[in-house]
Amino acid sequence: MLILAIDTALDACAAAVLDTETAELRAQESLPMKRGHAEALMPLIARVMQSANLAFTALDRIAVTVGPGSFTGLRVGISAARGLALAAERPAVGLTTLSAYAAAVVGQSGTAPVISAIDARHDHVYFQIVAGDGSQLVRPKVASIDEAIAASQFGAPHLVGNAATILADRWPKDAPQPIAVDAQAAPDIGWVAWLGAAANPDTTPARPFYLKAPDAKPAAPPPFAQAATS
What we know:
This protein is an alpha/beta fold and 230 residues long. The strands form two sheets. Strands 3-2-1-4-5 form a five-stranded mixed β-sheet, with helices on both faces. A five-stranded mixed β-sheet has the order 8-7-6-9-10, with helices on both faces. It has helices spanning 37-52, 71-88, 97-103, 145-149, 164-170, 189-198, 223-229; strands at 2-7, 12-19, 24-32, 61-65, 92-95, 114-121, 124-130, 136-144, 158-160, 180-182. Helix 1 packs parallel to helix 2 and helix 3 (97-103) crosses helix 6 (189-198). It contains seven helices and ten strands.
């Protein structure tokens, strides 16, 4: 199976082609960036596909991170995945950013639980917790940092994600201390591809996975506009 993986959810613009038969990435590229995903993504995908020496119709499916993450970044990646899937007549699957973070470290620390966490700002994080074998302990949610830290009840964890250091810095001294802290700005694009290969297209659509409403609010109409509609 040939998978094109795309990630623009956080502070990177990345794509890769995975060949599951050989268990290797045929091509990959990741650019660190906080803004500018819309301008960078399609040229990056074109370079990755050229490096893999593949036409889009040779792909079996397209995988994309669907959140949590930047609202703008998510729209860019999901729109690209859907458009390419439609043009190539291939399925598009969506994977959460939290699961991509967790997949890279599950089992590294034995049976230790894995907390994947993303900065949601305003003293909150998006997080989920899985056991050392990957089974789910706490479903993805947005919560205060204090609530996320209460997960110490599951034992000394492996922290991963762009909020891993935030949690580690606030971790109470009397709780089981984190076994490892992997502060990654964005998920490994290779793991996005592997999760995409394992996903069921019927149950993991490429659509946004939002855990909270956007911070930005529509601007109020000017007074004269309100008067005109009254």
